[in-house]
Amino acid sequence: xxxxxxxxxxxxxxxxxxILEKIITGGRYHQDQTNHGITYIVxxxxxxxxxxxxxxxVIGGNYVRHSAGGGNQVCLPDIPSYGQYTLGAQQVGxxxxxxxxxxxxxxxxxxHGKIVKCAACYNDKSSTSIMVPARVSxxxxxxxxxxxxxxxxxxxxxxxxxxxICVHKxxxxxxxxxxxxxxxxxxxxxxxxxxxxxxxxxxxxxxxxTVCSK
Length: 214
Hints:
mainly beta; 1 helix
C-alpha cells in the first residue's frame, strides 16, 4: 500500500470517528466530556443556592388521604403551559399543592400552613450529585449545594406515605389565599423511631440532610 493510500485510509477513518462523535454528543464538539453539569430540585426555596435557576415553582403531590395517585412530589413551575386538552373535570389523577406542617417545631413554626416553594437548578461545575440523609455536611471532596431538614408526610392516622425529600434549612413559603383548598399534601420534619438504629441517633432531634455535588 502506497503512502497516498495510507493517507486516504487515515482520512476516511478520521471522518468516521468525527461522525460517531457527532452522533454521541449531539453535535456538541466542545462540550467537556468529564463534566456535563447536574440538575436538581431545591425544595423549600424559590431560587437556587448555587448555579442557574431554571424555573421557580411550588410543590405538587398527592392528597394526604388518597391511596391512588402519584407517590412522589414534583416541582410545578409558577406559570404552566398546555398542549392539547379536553375541557372539563375528567375522572383522572389529581395534583394537590403542598403545605408545611411545622406547628410543633418552635424554630420552624413561622412556616406552618404556608404553600411550599421549590426551584429547578442547574450547576455546570459538577457531574454528579447525591442527597445524604441524617447529615448536614458533605463527604470529603464533595461540594455542598444546600442543607436542611429531611421531610415527608406527617405520621397522622389515615395519611398515606410520600417520599423523603431534603428541604432547605431556610423554609420559604407563600401565604395561601382564603379560597385555597385545605385538601393538600403536607410536609413535616421527621425523627427516628426509638431502638431502631445503632449508633448515636437521637430520637428527640429532627433529622437533617444535605445535597452534595462533585
